[in-house]
Design goal:
alpha+beta; Lipocalin; 10-stranded antiparallel β-sheet; two-stranded antiparallel ribbon
Length: 229
């Protein structure tokens, strides 16, 4: 049985500098959902690094795009504050990447699902719960933020709205064979035209088996060891 550390859904608030850096969102990141179509995602899952996005590569790619935009702006002689906006955007992007690093670090998942609800226990991170029955609330408000979840076709969507308008969106989808689970996590912030998104791919595993334990950060890259779970 997985031993999971359960903490508040508002764990990002433990890093106030990130929230202040990212600022408010410019627009609604999640559109109206379509008719519910639940897919069975229950079981135990382990992260497949080989099939998942690389955090450093995603960050570097987006940073190159911002620098290219800064160079184009520098050629506009009518601007009186050349470089200010791009620098701010790059700082926000770093904050978005750090936030994504923190909320996608779980290597093991345990999912319990019924006909009207699902709970995703994430190792070392907060759990994701969704009630999609006929009496389920459209949105849950926590005072310091809100959360809503729904089925969008065969994807399960969680949207977490934090203070200052920061949005975090998780999209879960299972493969046709049911042997892999993909989670695309997107962090939205004003000042950066595109969200910072990471796709994590998980495969089924048997609890108690041996395997690789890896960590991946912006500063240290990826380090893996072999151990029993």
């Amino acid at each position: 049985m997985l031993r999971l550390l359960k903490i508040s859904v508002f764990r990002p608030l433990m890093i106030p500098s990130l929230a202040l850096l990212l600022g408010a969102c410019a627009s609604e990141p999640v559109q109206q959902q379509v008719k519910s179509d639940p897919v069975d995602m229950s079981g135990n899952w382990e992260l497949d690094y080989a099939r998942s996005d690389n955090l450093q590569a995603q960050f570097s790619s987006m940073m190159r795009g911002l620098r290219a935009q800064a160079a184009r702006n520098a050629n506009d002689r009518s601007r009186n504050t050349v470089g200010t906006a791009p620098t701010s955007s790059q700082e926000r992007l770093l904050g978005m990447a750090q936030m994504a690093e923190m909320i996608t670090e779980s290597q093991l998942l345990e999912i319990e699902q019924s006909r009207i609800a699902i709970r995703v226990e994430r190792e070392g991170n907060f759990s994701l719960s969704c009630d999609y029955g006929p009496d389920a609330p459209v949105q849950v408000d926590y005072g310091l933020g809100s959360e809503r979840c729904f089925w969008d076709g065969q994807q399960l969507v969680f949207q977490i709205r934090l203070p200052d308008g920061l949005d975090i969106v998780h999209r879960l989808s299972a493969s046709a064979a049911g042997d892999t689970l993909g989670i695309v996590t997107s962090v939205y912030s004003r000042g950066v035209s595109e969200p910072f998104s990471l796709r994590r791919v998980y495969r089924r595993y048997t609890p108690g088996s041996s395997g690789y334990r890896c960590t991946e950060t912006l500063t240290r890259g990826r380090v893996c060891t072999t151990e029993s779970r």
